[in-house]
Amino acid sequence: MNLLLCRPEHCQDGEIQASERQTRHLQTTLMAKPGDTIRVGLLEGKRGQATLLSYKGNHARLRVEHLSEEPPAKLNLTLLMAMPRPKAFRRILQAVVALGVDRLILINSYRVEKSYWQTPWLQPDSLEENIQLGLEQSGDTRSPDILIRKRFKPFVEDELPTLSEGVECLLAHPGPVHEKHCINRHQAQMLAVGPEGGFIPYEIEKLCESGFRIHSLGPRILRVDTAISALIGQLYL
Ligand code: SAH
User: Fold this and answer.
1) What is the mean pLDDT of the chain?
2) Together in a domain, 58 and 104
3) I need a labelling partner for 83 at 20 to 30 A (CA). Which of 37, 48, 108, 209 fits?
4) 56 and 40 share a domain?
5) Is 148 within 8 Å of 126 (Cβ atoms)?
6) Mind listing the pLDDT tens digit for each residue in 154-170?
7) Considering only CA atoms, which residue is closest to atom 10 of ligand 1?
8) Residue 32 has what pLDDT?
9) Domain region containing 106
10) Which residues line ligand 1 (CB under 6 A)?
């Protein structure tokens, strides 16, 4: 937690009440004591500093010193990601948020098992919690938009044309590197990343028909989370 992020309702009259999780982190990881300065942020708002006042029960109280800094800019990027297996999903979601993806669209794919969509990690509370962990990790305050689309074909045929208008669309796929794509930072980008088993040829064809160009990091087949980090690092950082 590099930023203690709080909801507006937990920040009143210049005082913040930390959640139980945040309080545990302050006490056991940061070993923060009353009087210490802590970096704080308001969810969907600004960042700043606060002074730790006290620990009361399971909640720390802090006094806001200032909340005047903008969070870091997001990448102008929509990640179109095949729904990962539940065990990996939480970690991937936190990393995607921490990397600054502006919008995440979770899509179905032939090689996404139906049971993946039943995971409790997709419940609104769990999504919120893991988004918050990603934001706290990276010092951001603004949640990305998350869209869940459980049917591939209707999404690609009915929604994607509008979402991809004026957007540069790349489809990450392992293989020979034919072309090095350079990102125009002023233009919106969309990056499609497949499931563990990869997109099937039909899906690749449909995405290419919708304007996606194949982008490869080389012949090594990477895990989804490694591929996303490497792709964003290569294209943006
Ligand atoms: N078995 C699949 C690989 C799936 S890896 C296959 O052989 O195609 C999961 C996803 O990570 C892929 O669909 C792709 O989007 C991304 N990925 C993995 N390695 C990559 C690489 N070297 N270059 C670009 N994307 C990659």
Assistant:
1) 96
2) no
3) 209
4) yes
5) no
6) 999 999 999 999 999 99
7) 194
8) 97
9) 77-235
10) 172-174, 193-194, 196-199, 216-218, 220-222, 224, 227
